[in-house]
Amino acid sequence: MRTRNLCALTNFEAEEYLQRNDVIFIPVGTVELHGPMPLDCEYVFAEALAYELAERCDGLVLPHLTFFHPGATDIGRGTIYMSMTDGGNYLRAICQSLLNQGFRRQVFLTAHGPAYMTVLPMLTQFLDETKVPLFYGDVMTLMKEVDMELNMETLDNMLFGAYQLMKRLDDVPVGMNHPGIIITPQSDLSHCLPESMTELYPKGGGYYTAWKYGNVLEHGGSSSCVMSREELEQKAEIGAAKIREFADKLNFNKKLDALRDLDRFHQDVIMPLYGEHLVRNKFPKPGN
Question: Is residue 283 assigned to a domain?
Answer without folding.
Answer: no
